[in-house]
Backbone:
């Protein structure tokens, strides 16, 4: 962390060319310290960098950017697929997380730092050093979603419908909408209640945007175009200047609507939506990789630059890749597919180096051509005029001087709000020039509105744009601390296209990037129209009240032209050519009849098997808006295509249902089902599990690790006990007698033959004796059975003799006591009135629902979900979890008096810790230790069978039990901080137990103290009559459950478990009953008699 802090301070000293005053360092260093803390404690901790990759994976994904992170995350959802994600860069850092510092990551180690080649006959970027445009591209987990201004814009439905109309089946707007929605968690409630349809037109691709989005704007989640619960957080910045409102008002005064431009229609003005979470950047690495970082089938290799796809010359099948890491070339194989997600520059470069590209071009470098395709052609980008500035009089704009202060930093630290949460772009607009289609619904110019201009942070903008000092000093430096605002007018659908070409066979030499800006005349004319609409905007009443006027200082190369002539604006555009780095379309998607297509509509590279491209390079034409959201959508849709292609319906269903037919059946005595009622928090619990990287699965199926809605022994909304399941149906059997209120006190065993022949029991105060012709079976449980055995002379010799009991078989009865134990009262608070409270559900209507419909809250046992998770102490293979969660949509405050009674909780503890919660909305977890290493005992306290035995579970005598539980508790904190629970503002309840006040919350000491205070068991004692082979000195019964040394005596209950099972013990105990009964039948019935029965 010290290196991070040093880097941060170093950055602070270098943000300007003049020495930085000590005061200006305070907010920067404070922010640095915050994110160092965030790095350490953020529940979504960073993915691990796998140093030693396997020789082979099912899928290799090249590039962990806006698409690649999505693809790897989604493919690894199939637990029996192995996925390798190769990233040339490293991980995000504390600087990249701060929205207002988004410019500082560009031209850093996280940036490929590409530049365009010098222009030809159509000049551009003439104000930049060497006439070259800087083209930042992310070289980091999350790719360009770590460098960009976080704008979330999907484009226009007509973009996608045109894709589909051009032969790209499945890519219409309605067919992509689900994929936008799949990722979205939108926090604008009035936007999430509308419907959507299901294919590459706008309607076909919109689903794929949604698939990854996690939108936090509550008013956006009530429409068909947004939803909640995805991985990708989308919301407006929590802070903006008053000029943002003026921008919207100006739009209305120009005749445009203020609308959600990601909704039904795009034309209009809006407050910018962004990929922002808790006031920080939500990159695709944070959204899609951190939550699944613990998946054992996903490996992420950082600082690993892919140099070539390995393709068999004869079969034309991709079988792996070469990459360089730490200066060493390595090779890894792919069993199924290689997926290129290296972006619109990286993917075509890798393809060409691998022999896929234009034949003449590749042969000029001596590269063997495996598929002659127009790779690198069709390059498109959004381009416009930079530095388009307006001056105002009021001190309301965004200036570094105004907002670099301790108070601003503290607002950011404490409230996750304030100016530091703003990426600088406060508003977006989509407008029509005279060159746009007449229907007005496919605008051709986009505005990015900022409440500042280059003068606000000129040194950094100079650096990231490559602006010459002479231009900056002449045009922008004179503005000083002037109050300004600016527009970036961008050409949405340029007719000029460029190319990506190799400059060398060396993969470490950047390719030739030529965007060919403005080679088509209409591009210049459209931009000039868009610039003039901006002048009109400045002249609306909304901006005139601030005395807004255009800044008229010309660029040095344009002084010969009069302001606001076409010549002036064309010169300005060619001087300060500004792109916000949206390169696309260099591996064009198209049908097989398209001579320019590189990939088919399922993103498979033509002519090469098992190779796909899934990133922005596949767009047939650039979308009309920022490209990050569409690229994420392409990742979502591409990953689904791979799943569809590789999983037959049968395999898909088998994976999804955990092969349920093998693990479940109908027709038995015991009814098992989910409760017919649950709170909305149960769904959040499952979503949180997925966001933590676990699968939602039947944990009673093929694999246990994961999250599930609790299954229970429930029948028609009521308890299905073993009495109801197994005794009531056979109550009329004449050969079965059931004697209640009859307490067994002793097994009768012949001293000489050591054969059990009956029992003594007491009923109605009278001792009775009954004989058994064949066997006595003890099923009195893990406490009762060892007590009865010891009272009958079967047990530890020294212990029995101390009570004067004659020893008939010296066995370790009562030893090896095990139980599931955890932390009780582990509570979280939420804001929404959706939890299970006694006040809410104790009503006549609830009772009537139960009586009449056998449904409603009374059918719920309180435990709505179960999960089985792995701490670092669990086996590495990940399939034997060591912590179980019981999830409840309530806590002790919901029914405190009863819980006090059944737990024995002291009044003083309850009144101090839980009573203050009152009627608060809560949920809770019970983290349980599944395989404790501490064991206890059951011992007699008396020869009197009516005096309960000495029960000592010896909890936590083995140190690892405490450490494992603490790990499990912290996974619970991470769960509360997933998007699924954050949408309810979930946070841990931090009131300490009276005996733990000396410890700081979330330290190991705090949790250990809490565990030892509110030690909670859900009463799973086992293993006190251990089953084992004759060679086991601790065994009490053999594998057929016969007591060693005593004939005709068995134990059939939970006490025989050698070790406690990893889960609730009722079902295993019933299983032991079923198996034990079959063993008795086998031992006493000849084969003929068995068949007869």
Residues:
């Amino acid at each position: 962390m010290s290196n991070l802090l040093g880097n941060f301070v170093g950055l602070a000293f270098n943000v300007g060319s003049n020495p930085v005053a000590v005061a200006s360092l305070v907010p920067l260093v404070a922010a640095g310290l915050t994110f160092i803390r965030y790095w350490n404690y953020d529940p979504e901790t960073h993915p691990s960098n796998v140093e030693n990759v396997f020789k082979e994976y099912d899928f290799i994904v090249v590039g962990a950017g806006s698409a690649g992170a999505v693809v790897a995350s989604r493919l690894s959802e199939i637990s029996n697929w192995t996925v390798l994600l190769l990233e040339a860069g490293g991980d995000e850092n504390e600087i990249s997380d701060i929205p207002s510092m988004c410019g500082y990551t560009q031209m850093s180690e996280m940036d490929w730092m590409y530049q365009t080649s010098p222009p030809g006959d159509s000049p551009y970027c003439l104000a930049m050093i060497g006439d070259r445009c800087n083209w930042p591209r992310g070289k980091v987990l999350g790719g360009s979603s770590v460098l960009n201004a976080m704008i979330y814009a999907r484009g226009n439905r007509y973009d996608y419908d045109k894709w589909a109309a051009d032969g790209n089946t499945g890519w219409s707007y309605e067919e992509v909408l689900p994929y936008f929605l799949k990722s979205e968690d939108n926090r604008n409630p009035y936007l999430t209640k509308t419907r959507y349809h299901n294919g590459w037109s706008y309607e076909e691709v919109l689903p794929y945007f949604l698939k990854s989005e996690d939108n936090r704007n509550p008013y956006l989640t009530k429409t068909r175009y947004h939803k909640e619960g995805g991985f990708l957080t989308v919301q407006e910045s929590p802070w903006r200047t008053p000029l943002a409102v003026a921008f919207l008002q100006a739009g209305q005064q120009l005749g445009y609507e203020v609308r959600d431009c990601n909704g039904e229609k795009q034309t209009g003005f809006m407050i910018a939506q962004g990929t922002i979470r808790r006031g920080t950047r939500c990159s695709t690495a944070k959204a899609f990789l951190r939550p699944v970082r613990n998946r054992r089938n996903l490996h992420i290799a950082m600082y690993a630059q892919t140099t070539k796809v390995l393709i068999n010359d004869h079969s034309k099948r991709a079988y792996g890749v070469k990459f360089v890491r730490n200066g060493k070339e390595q090779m890894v194989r792919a069993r199924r597919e290689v997926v290129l997600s290296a972006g619109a520059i990286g993917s075509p470069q890798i393809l060409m180096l691998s022999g896929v590209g234009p034949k003449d071009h590749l042969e000029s470098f001596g590269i063997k051509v495996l598929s002659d395709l127009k790779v690198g052609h069709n390059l498109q980008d959004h381009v416009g005029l930079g530095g388009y500035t307006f001056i105002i009089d009021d001190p309301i704009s965004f200036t570094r001087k105004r907002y670099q202060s301790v108070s601003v930093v503290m607002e950011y630290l404490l409230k996750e709000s304030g100016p530091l949460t703003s990426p600088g772009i406060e508003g977006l607009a989509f407008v029509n020039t005279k060159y746009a289609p007449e229907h007005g619904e496919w605008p051709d110019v986009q505005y990015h509105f900022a409440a500042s201009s280059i003068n606000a942070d000129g040194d950094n903008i100079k650096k990231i744009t490559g602006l010459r000092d002479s231009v900056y000093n002449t045009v922008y430096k004179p503005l000083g601390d002037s109050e300004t605002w600016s527009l970036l007018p961008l050409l949405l659908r340029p007719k000029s296209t460029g190319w990506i070409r190799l400059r060398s066979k060396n993969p470490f030499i950047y390719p030739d990037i030529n965007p060919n800006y403005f080679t088509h005349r209409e591009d210049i004319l459209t931009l000039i129209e868009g610039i003039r609409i901006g002048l009109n905007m400045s002249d609306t009443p909304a901006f005139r009240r601030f005395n807004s006027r255009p800044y008229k200082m010309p660029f040095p190369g344009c002084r010969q032209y009069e302001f606001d002539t076409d010549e002036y604006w064309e010169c300005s555009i060619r001087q300060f050519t500004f792109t916000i780095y949206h390169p696309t379309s260099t591996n064009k998607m198209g049908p097989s009849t398209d001579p320019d297509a590189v990939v088919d509509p399922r993103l498979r590279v033509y002519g090469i098997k098992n190779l796909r491209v899934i990133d922005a390079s596949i767009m047939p034409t650039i979308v009309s808006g920022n490209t990050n959201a569409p690229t994420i959508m392409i990742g979502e849709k591409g990953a689904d295509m791979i799943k569809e292609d590789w999983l037959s319906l049968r395999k898909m269903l088998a994976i999804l249902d955990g092969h349920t037919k093998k693990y479940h059946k109908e027709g038995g005595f015991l009814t098992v089902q989910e409760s017919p009622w649950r709170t909305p928090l149960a769904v959040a619990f499952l979503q949180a599990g997925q966001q933590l990287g676990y699968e939602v699965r039947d944990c009673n199926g093929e694999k246990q690790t994961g999250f599930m809605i609790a299954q229970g022994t429930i029948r028609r909304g009521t308890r299905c006990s073993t009495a109801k399941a197994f005794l009531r149906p056979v109550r009329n059997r004449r050969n079965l007698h059931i004697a209640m209120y009859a307490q067994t006190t002793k097994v009768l065993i012949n001293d000489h033959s050591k054969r059990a022949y009956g029992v003594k029991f007491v009923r109605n105060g009278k001792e009775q004796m009954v004989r058994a012709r064949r066997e006595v079976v003890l099923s009195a449980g893990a406490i009762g059975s060892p007590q009865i055995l010891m009272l009958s002379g079967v047990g530890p010799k020294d212990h029995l003799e101390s009570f004067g009991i004659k020893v008939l078989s010296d066995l370790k009865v009562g030893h090896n006591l095990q139980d599931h134990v955890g932390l009780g009262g582990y509570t979280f608070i939420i804001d929404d009135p959706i939890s299970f409270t006694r006040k809410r559900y104790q009503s006549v209507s609830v009772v009537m629902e139960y009586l009449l419909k056998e449904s409603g809250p009374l059918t719920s046992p309180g435990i709505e979900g179960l999960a089985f998770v792995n701490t670092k102490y669990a086996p590495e293979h990940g399939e034997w979890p060591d912590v179980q969660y019981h999830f409840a949509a309530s806590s002790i405050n919901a029914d405190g008096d009863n819980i006090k009674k059944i737990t024995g909780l002291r009044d003083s503890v309850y009144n101090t810790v839980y009573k203050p919660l009152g009627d608060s909305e809560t949920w809770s977890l019970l983290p349980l230790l599944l395989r404790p290493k501490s064991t206890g005992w059951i011992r007699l306290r008396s020869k009197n069978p009516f005096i309960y035995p000495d029960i000592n579970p010896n909890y936590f005598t083995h140190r690892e039990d405490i450490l494992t539980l603490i790990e499990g508790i912290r996974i619970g904190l991470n769960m509360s901080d997933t998007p699924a629970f954050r949408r309810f503002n979930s946070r841990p309840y931090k009131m300490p137990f009276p005996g733990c006040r000396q410890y700081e919350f979330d330290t190991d000491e705090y949790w250990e103290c809490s565990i030892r205070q509110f030690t909670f068991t859900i009463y799973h004692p086992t293993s006190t009559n251990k089953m084992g082979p004759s060679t086991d000195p601790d065994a009490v019964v053999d594998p057929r459950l016969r007591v060693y040394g005593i004939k005709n005596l068995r134990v059939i209950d939970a006490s025989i478990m050698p070790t406690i099972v990893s889960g609730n013990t009722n079902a295993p105990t019933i299983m032991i009953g079923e198996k034990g009964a079959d063993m008795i039948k086998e031992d006493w019935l000849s084969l003929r008699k068995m068949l007869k029965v």
